[in-house]
Amino acid sequence: MTLHLVLTILAAAIVILLCWMLRGAALLPVRLGKKQRLTLLLHTAADTSALESAVRGLVWLIRDGLPAELIIEDAGLDPDARRAALLLEKQYPFVTYHTASEEPVWENGNT
Questions:
Q1: How many other CB atoms are there within 10 angstroms of residue 66's CB atom?
Q2: Domain residue spans of the chain
Q3: Is the pTM of this model over 0.85?
């Protein structure tokens, strides 16, 4: 009886793991070649919670294997959201913050 219960739990765990892996493969179909990179531009004037929610979702994809960097472009963030964007830039090495009035990050030769 106990062995049957353990085997059932183990089988369920394996099925859940396989579903998780398939979901990840479906969300991350991007395969870049050598000398290629993906840049995600988040042009935003959202409030703090919406900004953090969007960035955390993209960070999850990047940490889960999406080969990308994220640029938060300030298109009129309020002071609180601007502080949050700067904190997110410090927190994640692949996140960059700049204002929309600055030269685009991908054209300035610093990337």
A1: 18
A2: 1-30, 33-107
A3: no
